[in-house]
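Notebook entry, cofactor series.
This is the third protein in the set we're modelling with a bound small molecule. For this one the ligand is fe (ii) ion. I'm keeping the input format identical across the series so the outputs can be compared line by line later. Sequence and SMILES below, as received.
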Amino acid sequence: MKMIKSGVAVWPLALCLSLLVLVPVFAQVGPKFQSGMEPPHLLAGPYLQNPGEDSMTVVWLTDKNTTASVEYGANGLLDQKAVAIHAGLIDANTRLHRVRLTGLKPGTPYQYRISSTEIVKFGPYSVTFGTNVTSPPAAFKTLSRQSDQVSFVVMNDLHQNLQTMQVLWGFAKVNPVDLVFFNGDSLDYLENEDQIVKFLLQPVTGLFAQSTPLMYVRGNHETRGRYARFLHDFLDTPGGEYYYSFDAGPVHFVVLDTGEDKEDSHPAYSGLNGFAGYRDGEKQWLAQEVKSRAFRSARYRVVFMHIPPFSAREGRGRSGGAQDCFEKFTPLLNRAKVDLLITAHTHHYAYLEPKPGEHDYPMVNGGGPSQEGATLIRLDADKQRLHLTVTQGDGVILHQRDYPAK
Ligand SMILES: [Fe+2]
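Returned structure with ligand:
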């Protein structure tokens, strides 16, 4: 009782003290703006990732900590706005921005532009905003399972050769393309953000990725270097892993992550690689994947692996990562009625006819990274056929093939 009385007695005093503290706090609440400053700059992007029937991820990098939003809409309008929210907080005060657009309509063209406003001061009760940067409007089209057609191209083993990337894209863009795959080793290794920006993000943004999604397949070189563990921050994939599947038109795509090419115990990895166990988990995922309705009901099934599990050179053996991929992935793929396996890594173009019992499907292996040895692998799928064209860096067509629809 005494305590209650005491509490009542001190209440007016506590209220006054609270007000003394809160008044200056409330006086600061609300956004502030500071003008006349150098605006933030786009270091890379916007580029498109993880396309879906009803969704698309827009990624960009600014040179200062900013907010991030995407204005977008159909029919030439920018009448909707998206932000990224994690645990109730809108992403802000960062330089790398990933915003997922959802609720889109399949097979529909959209326009979009990004907007980032600098955060000059991020106080607990008041944020001061600076100036803003926006991108010019760009456009993309959502994927559609109902569509009878899809076209995609594959570059591989660019090894930071921007000239090769540019030349191959010159061949690709002659006809419309829905997706661009980089089948590994686009980079030599990962040292820092600047390297990813200069040799990957800026060039793909400039060439195609503002309007055509970049589909990333990790190569063994992209597991190397101090910054390799941060590469995924710049990408977005279905399911968030480097191995994933998705549908586009009549094609079901499976992307596998083949990891490193040598055993985990190799001295070059200094005991920091664990790909054997990682591939065990991936094998479990693949076992479920090939049983999925999307896989089984697709008109065409195309699989990507950076490291080829089969050699084009007779008698050439397998070891390390290639052997592990061969043992863990290929038995599942052989039973799965795959139409085409697309590989890379050897820097030599090769085409392998199906070899029953070993690989019941054909395999095409891209060359690179020099312009003379590089290849652009193109596939155009429609109701009747999946058409393959392999073009060498000098423009010579090396191979064409039709795979009939099932
Ligand atoms: Fe490689």
